[in-house]
Amino acid sequence: MPSPSKSSGLISTPSLSPSLAQTLMSASLAYAGSIKVPINIWIFDPSLHPLLFHRMEGAKLTSIDIAYNKALTAAGHRLSTDKYGDKVNGLLHGIGRSNGGRFCTIAGGEPIFVDGVCVGGVGVSGGLPSEDKDIALAGINHLLRTLSANGPVKAKL
């Protein structure tokens, strides 16, 4: 389907295709398996629609929602969830109650940027926050390497 012209007033929002989302997820799951951390992982598009979900055997059931909230926050705010840190007790006090209580400030939520544009977000939960972040970034880095094999890609992590 052709893209609408700029004169139509419509805009086009770049997003991960299902196959690219699967590429990212597969790499994250492989890394999680290699460090023996059973996780839940969500991948969202930039409009905050879920694209993919996977629960590894042994992953905590309560982490399903946490991973969802991390992906939602990262995709919606275009910022890593761990970047909020101490600000939630100061300047951003109460932000965790926004978005129906789904705003998450725990590491493991990462926006996905391709050519400087946010094309989605990934949320990982099941390990320590630092492990969740590393697992999310392993998937994003693999995705960016896959894309760069097909031509130049400007990444933002």
TrEMBL record:
<dbReference type="Pfam" id="PF03928">
    <property type="entry name" value="HbpS-like"/>
</dbReference>
<dbReference type="InterPro" id="IPR038084">
    <property type="entry name" value="PduO/GlcC-like_sf"/>
</dbReference>
<dbReference type="InterPro" id="IPR052517">
    <property type="entry name" value="GlcG_carb_metab_protein"/>
</dbReference>
<protein>
    <recommendedName>
        <fullName>DUF336-domain-containing protein</fullName>
    </recommendedName>
</protein>
<dbReference type="InterPro" id="IPR005624">
    <property type="entry name" value="PduO/GlcC-like"/>
</dbReference>
